[in-house]
Each structure stands twice: as structure tokens, then as C-alpha cells.
Amino acid sequence: MEAQRRRLAWERDGADWPHRAHSRFLQAGGLHWHVQVAGQGPVLLLLHGTGASSHSMAGLLPLLSPRFTVVVPDLPGHAFTDPLQPAPGLPAMARALAALLAMLDLAPPALVAGHSAGAAIGAQLMLDGHAPARALVSMNGALLPFDGVAGLLFAPLARLIGGGPLLPGLVTRLVARQARDDRAVQRLLDGTGSVVPAASAALYARLVRSPAHVAGALAMMAHWDLRPLADALPRLPVPLWLLASDRDRMVPPEQARAVARRLRQARVLPLAGTGHLAHEEKPAEVAALIQAAWAG
User: Fold this and answer.
1) Cα separation of 92 and 191, whole Å?
2) Separation of first and last alpha carbons in the chain
3) Contact predicate 190/157, CB 8 Å
4) What's the rounded Cα separation, in Å, for the pair 244 and 181?
5) In sequence order, what are the beta bridge partners of 69?
């Protein structure tokens, strides 16, 4: 498929990748992975959200690596990691990450922090026994089924991706073609409610101009069913720290409060003046909260 032929190339597209010196490539669970590992101490797993990549954790990594061994993968189908076949649903994503963690030959994660969909994957890892961590930090986490505007957007996308062999290629090429316009990329970022550093914005533009990356992100959304996770969340065996941004246009802070009403071990921490990508806007503030979750 064209989307597969037009994947990001590390030698070209990763030449200026943040913290490139910490990047590794390895086979695990049948996938070729890109993952960054830095620091020393207890293992901290950082998981990006749908459509992003390891680059979105660039501001957090140097702040957390003095205290932790920080592991930051590109999720399956994103950036430089192979797509997960046949379907990148939530349990399958968790199993794939468990295989990666085992191949890294590190201690199990002592702490997991996930952004948006990454928070859902982190929760699934713990519920399935793959990550016996001390706590889960949800950074504007998408932990409940989408409703409202997000639901109206994601449901049609899921139908398009599942609509036949030709539609996925058409959709990904259309998105990648539109992304050639810098204004279109800026509109996507504006839709998060965040203002990210210029270097990060340029990398988001690079990602969405890759049909393979777009295909990976859309396939992930198409197979994302958060209803079983929402039912299982009360069984989460660790404290849940819910970082919630007041300007988030993707996952409104009310979702964090709704999760907290279901879980006695959950705690909502407002992030003032930030949008969905708060960890890129205020990495020092988010890193301090991640370390507070570790301290308990």
C-alpha cells in the first residue's frame, strides 16, 4: 500500500529528532519499535497519545531522567514504530507494549504516565498485570467513551477506516495532502487548546504529512473501544492522578472529574492555563506532578 511505502525514514525524518542519542530500535512482539531510554533509577514509562509520538515527551525527558529510567516509545503505527496488525485495539496495544518492555530487559515500570489515549493504554497495562507500578498519571487522559464533539468526529472516522480496502488509503492520502498547508497543521494544533514550542509544531507537521503515520493514528481510533476500560477502571490497583487542563478542547476537564467520581483512589489536579498538550506547554509543572505521584 502507498501509506506503507511512504513511511517516515529515521535517516531523513529523524535526523533532528529530540534526544536522538537516547533512541533505540528493536524487534518485540512482531514489531520493529523506536523507543527512547534515558536516565537511571526506577522505570518510568511515558506514553504519548493518538497522532503524536515520542517527540511530545521531549520536554519531560530531561526533567525526569535524573530520577528515573525514562522509557518513551513510539506507539504502534506512529512515527518510526511498525503498525499493529490486524487491529490496534486497547488490549492488543497493551500486549504489544508488554512485549517491548520485556525485550528492553529493564525492571517492570514503577510508574506510568500517559497522555490522552496513552493514559488508557497505561491503565490497560496495569489491569492486565503487565505493569505492577506504584501509580498511574493521566495527562488529560481519554479514559471514558467520547461524547459530544469528539464523539461526532471519531465515530465517522472509524466508519471510514472500516469501510473497505480502498477507503483507508484515500483518507490517509487526503489528510497528508491537506497537511502540506502549514495553516491546516496550525488549525489541528489550535484544536487542542495548546500553544506548543515551534520545534514541536514542526515535528507534528512532519508526522501528519506521512500517510503511514496518519494511517496508524486513524486505525488506532477506529479500533478504540473505551467502554470495557471504563467498566474495569474501578478495579485499577493503584492510585490514579488525573491531570486536567482548563483549556483542553479534546478531553474536557469534566471527564477527569467523572472518572474521579467512579474511583476512590483517583485525584484530580487542575492545570491552569493549558490545553490538551499541557506536558509540552508546561513540562516543569507536569514533571513535578509526576514526581509527586511517585512520592505518594
Assistant:
1) 29
2) 48
3) no
4) 31
5) 39, 43
Round the CA-based radius of gyration of the chain to a whole number and report it.
17
pLDDT tens digits, 212-226: 998 898 888 888 889
d(CA 60, CA 256): 22
- Residue 114 · residue 121 · CB < 8 Å: yes
> What are 137's strand-pairing partners?
113, 241
Strand (E) or helix (H) holding 22: none
Record the cell numbers describing residue 177, joined without a space.
495532502
Paired sense of beta strands 69-73 and 111-115, if any: unpaired
Residue type, 89: G
**Whole-number Å distance between alpha carbons of 209 and 79:** 11
Q: Mention every residue, 6+ apart, whose C-beta is less than 8 A from residue 210.
A: 6, 7, 8, 13, 176
Tell me the pLDDT tens digit for each residue of 227-282.
999 999 999 999 999 999 999 999 999 999 999 999 999 999 999 999 999 999 99
